[in-house]
Amino acid sequence: MALPTFILLLALFSASTSVASAAWLRAHATFYGGSDASGTMGGACGYGNLYTDGYWVKTAALSTALFNDGKSCGGCYQMVCDATQVPQWCLKGTHITITATNFCPPNYNLPSDNGGWCNPPRPHFDMAQPAFETIAKYRAGIVPVLYRKVGCRRSGGIRFSINGRDYFELVLVSNVGGAGDVSKVWVKGSKTNKWENMSRNWGANWQSLSYLTGQSLSFRVQASNGKIVTTLNVVPSNWKFGQSFKTNVQF
Q: What is the pLDDT of residues 120-147, one digit of tens each?
């Protein structure tokens, strides 16, 4: 008995990809942000300008079921349009890997099968329009997809952007490769010389309530898969709030 077309497609694709991944799951996808994805900037993960942060237009806002209160920020998902259900809307032989950069809020005024696409418990991706049009036709509006969590490939090292004020350092951790989503962050000042746990403030922003001004800073980052990297003295002692610092360290 012949295998369904989409299973053959996924089997061939799985054999050709070098990225280890989980099982394929079902969801739906829509799009937002305009043809240039300008409307996707900022968002609930806090990355700001997605072009300078290295995520470009291959991004998506995740529904409540996937967003996990911001813990999924930075994670990467590979997806294909499910041509077994809507062959007229899928672009044959295509796939895309997106980064989670935003939250798609529920709309309880609409039914989950007719407009309330991001209502719990639905897994849903509201993709940047150029990303959506990589796998499906614009006119479709919404399509069923098959997706799986995969590793993230980033150019360059992890980036730390420091905002806030004295005794409240708010650090955006971005351009994270490997698992992509971060589960723990530690900071160490050159004067305190001890690792301090940071707490997630919102999205990909982590906070410290210590006085770190005037110290060079080191960071330790743990990804959701448990792997840890350490960046020593990546931030010089004369740092200012509002500055970003690139590293040579990556997962």
A: 999 999 999 999 999 999 999 999 999 9
C-beta separation of 25 from 98 below 8 A: no
Contact 197, 181 (CB under 8 A): no
With CA atoms as reference, report the closest residue to 169 among 215, 233, 230: 215
DSSP assignments along 29-91, one per residue: EEEES-TT-GGGSS-TT----TTTTT-TT-EEEEPHHHHGGGTTTT-EEEEEE-TTT-TTTB-
Coil, helix or strand for 6?
Answer: helix
* Rounded Cα distance, 251 and 222, in Å: 10
Q: How many CB atoms lie within 10 A of CB 123?
A: 17
